[in-house]
Amino acid sequence: MSYNTNKGCHAVYSIQFHYVACIKYRRKVLVGDVAQRLKEINLKVADKFGVTIVEQEAVGDHLHLLFSCGPQVQLSKLVNSIKAVSARLLFQEFPFLRSKTRGNHLWSPSYFLASVGEVDLETLKRYVENQNDQDT
Q: Quick one: residue 25, left, alpha or beta (phi over 0 = left, psi -120 to 50 = alpha)?
């Protein structure tokens, strides 16, 4: 079995996660320019954490993010930063979102996070890539 590995000072690792977050009240606001801007914001946040986004797709009322990271990344801080930064910037840049989501909360407080292991990375990558086709 072969892995795509990364190296740190004292570790060799291959760690990937599948993250899903839903818009509060499942409002379908992640479309068009909003979805595109969300992806740009996520890339910047991930870069600050030293995380590589393998694939991402905004699908109307939720976000799929497939990412790779090192063992030093605190996942809860990464997820909270993605949610907080994206909500703040999207509300600033797209004011109509406040009325669509009933106030100051863009994201549902819950989320899904799974390590990628049972399914190979290419299969999961195709799944995330095709999420936009599933919503129609």
A: left
